[in-house]
Amino acid sequence: MKNLKLAGCGTALITPFRGGAVDYDAYASLVDRQVNAGVHFLVPLGTTGETPCLEFSERMKILELTMEHSAGKPVVVGGGTNSLAQTLDGIRKLESLDPDAYLIVVPYYNKPTQTGLYEYFKAVAESTEKGIVLYNVPGRTGANLKAETTLRLAEIPNIIAVKEASGNYAQISEIIRNAPDGFSVLSGNDEETLSLMATGADGIVSVASNIDPEDMVKLAEALMADDIRTARMLHHRLTPLFRNCFVESNPIPVKAAMAAMGLIENTLRLPLCSASESTYSLMESTVKELGLK
C-alpha cells in the first residue's frame, strides 16, 4: 500500500511577482485563499509556478511559506529537472522543509526512451522516503510516459500517483483500469476532470483553481460522490474558464485573471511576459461572468 493517497482538487500554485521579485506576502495570501476554499492538496513550484525562472533560494522560501500556511493539507512540491543529478540535489535540499511528496516531471528536451524513463524515476524514488508523483506532459517535455511504464513504476512503493496531462484518454484509461491499490491517477488538464474522474481517476491538479478554487473543489467533490448531475453543471459553468486559461502559454492568462481580481500584480519572468490586451480583456470578462472578485 502507498503511504499517501492523493484525491480531489490540488492547485498548481502560481508564483506572484512584484517589481521583478517574488511577492511572498501575496503568495502566502494565495495559499490561505486555497486552504479556506477547501482545496484538498497544494502543488507549489510546478510549471504554473514558473519554477524554471526561480532561484533556488526563492524556491525554498516558497515551499517554506506553503508548509507554514497549508493547515495540514498535503503539499506536493515540484522537484523535477532533465538531469538526474540536479533532481536528486534539489530533493535533498527541499527535504529539510518536510513536504509530503515530490512532483517529478518527465525529463524534458532529452527525449529519453521508456527504459531511460523507468530507470530515472526509479532512481528518484530510491533517493527519498517521500512520495513521488509522476508528471506526464508530453506537450511540454517532448516525451510521453507510456501507460505500461507508468504501471511498472506504480509498483514501486513510494511512487504514489501520476499527474497525467497527455490528453490521451485511452492511455489514461489504461492506467486507471490497471493501477495498483493506493496509486492515484490525477488529471493534469482541467477540462478533462469530468471525463477522467467519472471513469475512475482520483482527482485533478488544477490551474483554473488558482482563479476559482471554490467551484473546482465542488466539481471534484461531486465527482468523488458520483454526483454526475452536479458535476456536469459545474463542468459546463467552468468550461469557458478552462479554455481561456490556455489561450496563451500557462500561466499568462491565469495571472491576467488574478490581476483583474486584484489578487496579484500582472508580472511574469522572461521568457514569459504579461498577457496581450485581448487576453487580459478576455480573462477579465471571464472572471466577471463567474461572479468572482
Short account of what is shown:
This protein has 293 residues and is of the alpha/beta class. 44% of the residues lie in helices and 14% in strands. The protein has helices spanning 24-36, 56-69, 84-94, 114-126, 138-141, 147-153, 169-178, 193-198, 213-224, 228-244, 252-260, 277-289, and strands at 8-12, 17-18, 21-22, 41-43, 76-78, 101-105, 131-136, 159-164, 184-187, 203-206.
Describe the structure.
It is a single chain. With 293 residues, this protein is an alpha/beta fold. It has a single domain, classed as TIM Barrel (Alpha-Beta Barrel). The protein is built from 12 helices and 10 strands. It has helices at 24-36, 56-69, 84-94, 114-126, 138-141, 147-153, 169-178, 193-198, 213-224, 228-244, 252-260, 277-289, and strands spanning 8-12, 17-18, 21-22, 41-43, 76-78, 101-105, 131-136, 159-164, 184-187, 203-206. An 8-stranded parallel β-sheet has the order 4-1-10-9-8-7-6-5. Strands 2-3 form a two-stranded antiparallel sheet. The longest helix is centred in the C-terminal third of the chain and has 17 residues, at 228-244. The model has no long low-confidence stretch (mean pLDDT 97).
Provide keyphrases for this structure:
293 residues, alpha/beta, TIM Barrel, eight-stranded parallel sheet, two-stranded antiparallel ribbon, 12 helices, 44% helix, 14% strand
